[in-house]
Structures are given as C-alpha cells and as structure tokens.
Design a protein that fits this description.
The complex is a heterodimer of chains A (about 110) and B (about 120). Chain A is mostly beta strands. In chain A, about 0% of the residues lie in helices and about 55% in strands. In chain A, strands 2, 4, 5, 9, 10 and 11 form a 6-stranded mixed β-sheet that branches. Chain A has a 5-stranded antiparallel β-sheet with strand order 1-3-8-7-6, with no helix packed on it. With about 120 residues, chain B is mainly beta. In chain B, the strands form 2 sheets. In chain B, strands 2, 4, 5, 6, 9, 10 and 11 form a 7-stranded mixed β-sheet that branches. In chain B, a hairpin with a 2-residue loop joins β7 and β8. Chain B starts with a strand and ends with a strand. Classes of the chains: A mainly beta (about 110), B mainly beta (about 120).
C-alpha cells in the first residue's frame, strides 16, 4: 500500500519568514496530494491540493510543488503569520480525490512573533 | 462548501460498553465514506471504507468485529465500537468525497470528529 513520509516533524520560523514542509510517497499510482492544517481538537482543513497533471499550484501565500519522477511534493508558506501556527499534514490518494487518503506523520509549525 | 456532521462530538463510556458514532453528509449523497482514527499527537490513520449498501472494507489490523460499520443510506454511515476498552480512546473522524466548488474534481470533506474516552 501507499506510504507517505513527512519532514520535518517540528518547524519554528520567525514571523514573516517562509516555511517549507516536504513529503514523499511510494505508490506511483497516487495522483492527488492535498495538504491539511489541523488545530487542536478540530477537523483537518484543506489548505491546498495538487493533482498529478500539474507541477505547481499557488494560492496567495501558499504554494505546493509536485515532482512525480522523484515522488515528492512540498508545501511552501511565505510571509508567515502567527495564525499559521498549527499541525500540517500531507496526504496522498488515487482516483483524484475519490479514494482513501494516506496521511503523512504531520509537522508542528510554530511561528515566532 | 459541503458539510459533513458527526454525532456525538464527544462521549465518555465505561470499559466493556458499546458506542455508536454517526457520520452524516448534510447536503450531498455519499456512496462512500471513510473512517479515520487519530491518537493524541499522531496522524490520521484510515480504519475502514464504508460503502453504501455493501460491506465495509477494513484496513489491515483493524478488527471488523470490534468496529462495526453500517452505511444504510446515502447520507449516513455509523461506526460502532463494541466492547470498548481504554486503548480505544481516540479521536474518530469521518470523511466523504464530493466535488468541491473550486474545481471539477473531488475533495474529501471531513466531519468535526468524535472524541471517545473509555474509562
């Protein structure tokens, strides 16, 4: 089955700096890669996703890149703000989002004011 | 966007009792729903795929006789934790795929989760 690895497990950055979180996946059939932000006790919130037919996607301060050959994808957050502090999970799925998600282990991001 | 609800939001029960958790898609029909479990400070792990009108598909290591799933309608899936024990204490979250308003593709919509504490 699919295996998703995520690094780093914790990340602290100064407010205004950029944060990068990286994930690798094992199943070449995976074609949907969402990123979620989760606050304590809450449901995961989708912040951005990418499908295997594109290599990069951007939404304001958030961007995701995908390298299908190397089977890795990354989340980039620019101009970080204190409200970006949370746990972030990457995930992988087949069938463009219709099937089960395999999650990474999570990254606790702390923005230092 | 699509809304998925769960009930109850939290439950405390005694060891050996059974607990039922409901997952509802409020504004769309879901032939498939997914049940995840999240232990403190850990990731979400898929337990099973719930299929409307047929048997659920369980992930390796998840006991189907302990975690009973019923997907009797296109808007409701239930997870029953039978003979619950303290080690079953966790955050249980369901999700269902639906086309998002942002693209023609599907995305997973998550319920708010149910925190189960077994004493």
């Amino acid at each position: 089955g699919e295996n998703v690895e995520q690094h780093p497990s914790t990340l602290s950055v100064q407010e205004g700096d950029s944060a990068v979180i990286k994930c690798t996946y094992s199943d070449s059939a995976s074609n949907y890669f969402p990123w979620y932000k989760q606050e304590l006790g809450k449901r995961p919130q989708l912040i951005i996703d990418i499908r295997s037919n594109v290599g990069e996607k951007k939404d304001q301060r958030i961007a995701v890149t995908l390298n299908k050959t190397a089977k890795h994808f990354s989340l980039h957050i620019t101009e970080t703000q204190p409200e970006d502090s949370a746990v972030y999970f990457c995930a992988a799925s087949k069938s463009f989002g219709n099937e089960k998600l395999t999650f990474g282990t999570g990254t606790r991001l702390t923005i230092i004011p | 966007g699509a809304v998925v609800s769960q009930h109850p939001s939290w439950v405390i029960c005694k060891s050996g009792t059974s607990v039922k958790i409901e997952c509802r898609s409020l504004d769309f029909q879901a032939t498939t729903m997914f049940w995840y479990r999240q232990f403190p400070k850990q990731s979400l792990m898929l337990m099973a795929t719930s299929n409307e009108g047929s048997k659920a598909t369980y992930e390796q290591g998840v006991e189907k006789d302990k975690f009973l799933i019923n997907h009797a309608s296109l808007t409701l899936s239930t997870l029953t934790v039978t003979s619950a024990h303290p080690e079953d204490s966790s955050f249980y979250i369901c999700s269902a795929p639906k086309a998002s308003g942002r693209s023609s593709y599907n995305e997973q919509f998550f319920g708010p989760g149910t925190r189960l504490t077994v004493l």
